[in-house]
């Protein structure tokens, strides 16, 4: 859930959830083990049973290519059945948890709605065509365009808004530049993996880790701010190094998956990647070093915003003057030769055909994006006082079904409401759109949001049932609690390597780095402390993994598909996300081991 949309104090106070977050890792004492054994449920068995909904969803979507709605619907039924009959959740508590999840989905739906609305306004006014024309004239090489958008624009929007917003903006832009819709969706998500740990002005750390780590569990004399500073710095090292090679990896995968048929192999993709390597390394190095230095010296609020503006500014200059760029431009094969899956269900009039046109001055076309970044930057900048003002306006649902679960929607702090909707409306006036075009933008937005909204409601509801199963009549650890506890306990001294995978699991299910940190930060801290490893390093690896999970998250994939009209193709995209996820998770794990037993040790 986005920070500021639900009160973190409310989350910590929820029945069962606080028990899950605050119990030490070693809290499965002998008595509990004996009780579980009597019930035929040792901790490992309980964890395996609790993982059934997650594993089922993954297998149905990746293996059988089910849509997100069908796969998550099946997972919801399994989670509910396990919660009611094995965990013996009170019926009203189960229902309240399911409703609470549906209400949480409203936050995501509003973000997607705002992103789609702004996109439709930009399409209707001709701004999108002008921006596409601008990128085409700066660089007609698709590899260069991907790097500028992925490392530049994506990073700015993630730093300001977070929560899957970058992919929702980048995917339509890539389609307009001539990228196959499937490639646009995949790489819109791909480039939202290294930035989320500092997304939304540092919310995963400021709002996620800080909401569950307090001075009661910290060593004597260490303040929460000091611990968060350590987490920020260790996170910045890993994500900063990752950004150096992430752009180059993105180009390589683009060529491997979407190049001409005779080049879709390791040798062919590598051959076409080499010419853009200097440009990719310069932009990646600039992004990584800026992010790392900003995190090290200024904290978690600004690393992404600073890195994105640095990349976009320098990258556009280099591309304009053909410095370090390939001599021969690379473009996709002709549309007639595209594989059916590349279209993602879109054909003909569903996306741009032909060359984009300049419909207005370039600066005017960019103005809505600049306004989005500016408003988000100002409203989330620490010390200006606007954060507190915007968060003061809430829509509250107290004690759902009489249970100790309360929902609070901080609507003015939600990016979908501010700034997306007002900027979209303002775009209609500054771009001089007629009333009919503006009305069509709203109509198309409502039409596109319906299907992904259903998927999101089911997915978040299932997640909350699994989380809230920690409060049950069987006196068992909750599903998510049992799974994460066994993973952490089994890791032992290798917990720095395992931590990113646990963080990825949390974000995979919730769609939020912040939520993943809320779920697992205390667990990771206790696991590290119990084996004598620096807890700040392990919590930082949890934060890194939570960012990585955004790329793989069913919720974010469904949101992107909803924005560009590819609902039903979520399983295909998820399959492609597995490889880069494994690469980054292994890298992050090894980096965690190096930090824990080297520098921090």
Name some characteristics of this structure.
601 residues; mainly alpha; two-stranded antiparallel sheet; 27 helices; 2 strands; globular; disordered N terminus
Account of the 3D structure:
The protein is built from 27 helices and 2 strands. It is mainly α and 601 residues long. The chain has one domain (8-599). The chain has a two-stranded antiparallel sheet. The longest helix is centred in the N-terminal third of the chain and has 35 residues, at 91-125. 58% of the residues are buried. The model is unreliable at 1-29 (pLDDT under 50).
Content-based structural category = mainly alpha
What about the largest sheet?
2 strands, antiparallel
- What value does the Rg take, in angstroms? 23 Å
- Count of alpha/pi helices: 27
Low-confidence spans = 1-29
**DSSP summary, beta strand count:** 2
Shape category: globular
Q: What letter string, H or E per element, gives the SSE order?
A: HHHHHHHHHHHHHHHHHHHEEHHHHHHHH
Q: Concise description?
A:
The chain is mainly α and 601 residues long.
């Amino acid at each position: 859930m986005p920070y500021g949309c639900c009160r973190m104090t409310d989350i910590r106070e929820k029945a069962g959830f606080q028990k899950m977050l605050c119990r030490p890792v070693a809290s499965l004492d002998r008595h509990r083990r004996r009780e579980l054994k009597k019930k035929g449920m040792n901790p490992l068995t309980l964890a395996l049973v609790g993982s059934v909904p997650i594993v089922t969803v993954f297998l149905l979507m990746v293996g059988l290519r089910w849509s997100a709605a069908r796969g998550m619907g099946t997972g919801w039924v399994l989670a509910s059945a396990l919660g009611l009959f094995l965990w013996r959740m009170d019926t009203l508590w189960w229902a309240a948890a399911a409703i609470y999840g549906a209400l949480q989905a409203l936050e995501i739906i509003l973000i997607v709605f705002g992103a789609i609305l702004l996109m439709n306004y930009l399409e209707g006014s001709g701004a999108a065509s002008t921006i596409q024309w601008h990128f085409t004239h700066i660089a007609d090489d698709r590899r260069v365009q991907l790097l500028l958008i992925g490392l530049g624009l994506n990073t700015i929007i993630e730093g300001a808004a977070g929560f899957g917003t970058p992919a929702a903006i980048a995917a339509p832009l890539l389609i307009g530049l001539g990228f196959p819709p499937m490639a646009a969706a995949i790489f819109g998500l791909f480039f939202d993996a290294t930035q989320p740990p500092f997304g939304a002005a540092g919310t995963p750390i400021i709002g996620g880790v800080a909401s569950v780590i307090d001075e009661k569990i910290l060593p004597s004399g260490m303040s929460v701010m000091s611990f968060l500073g350590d987490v920020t710095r260790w996170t910045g090292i890993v994500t900063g190094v990752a950004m150096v090679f992430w752009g180059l990896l993105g180009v390589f995968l683009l060529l491997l998956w979407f190049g001409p048929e005779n080049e879709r192999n390791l040798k062919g993709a590598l051959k076409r990647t080499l010419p853009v390597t200097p440009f990719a390394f310069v932009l990646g190095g600039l992004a990584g070093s800026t992010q790392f230095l900003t995190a090290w010296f200024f904290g978690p609020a600004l690393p992404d915003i600073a890195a994105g503006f640095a990349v976009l500014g320098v990258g556009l200059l280099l591309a304009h003057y053909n410095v370090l760029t390939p001599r021969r431009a690379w473009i996709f094969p002709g549309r007639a030769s595209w594989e059916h899956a590349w279209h993602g269900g879109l054909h003909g009039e569903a996306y741009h055909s032909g060359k984009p046109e300049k419909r207005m001055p370039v600066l005017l076309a960019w103005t809505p994006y600049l306004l989005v970044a500016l408003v988000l930057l100002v409203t989330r900048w620490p010390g200006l006082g606007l954060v507190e003002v915007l968060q003061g306006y809430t829509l509250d649902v107290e004690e759902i079904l009489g249970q100790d679960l309360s929902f609070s929607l901080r609507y003015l702090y939600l990016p979908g409401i501010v700034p997306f909707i007002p900027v979209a409306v303002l775009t209609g006036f500054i771009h001089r759109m007629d009333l009919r075009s503006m009305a069509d933008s709203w109509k198309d937005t409502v039409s596109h949001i319906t299907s992904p909204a259903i998927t999101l409601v089911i997915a978040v509801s299932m997640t909350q049932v699994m989380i809230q199963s920690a409060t049950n009549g069987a006196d068992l650890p909750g599903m998510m609690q049992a799974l994460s506890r066994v993973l952490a306990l089994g890791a032992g001294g290798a917990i720095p390597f395992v931590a990113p995978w646990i963080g990825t699991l949390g974000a995979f299910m919730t769609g939020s780095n912040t939520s993943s940190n809320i779920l697992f930060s205390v667990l990771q801290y206790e696991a590290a402390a119990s084996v004598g490893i620096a807890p700040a390093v392990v919590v930082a690896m949890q934060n890194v993994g939570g960012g990585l999970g955004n790329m793989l998250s069913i919720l974010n994939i469904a949101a992107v598909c909803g924005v560009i009209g590819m609902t039903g193709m979520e399983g295909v995209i998820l399959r492609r996300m597995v490889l880069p996820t494994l690469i980054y998770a292994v890298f992050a794990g090894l980096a965690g081991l190096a930090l824990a037993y080297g520098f921090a040790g």
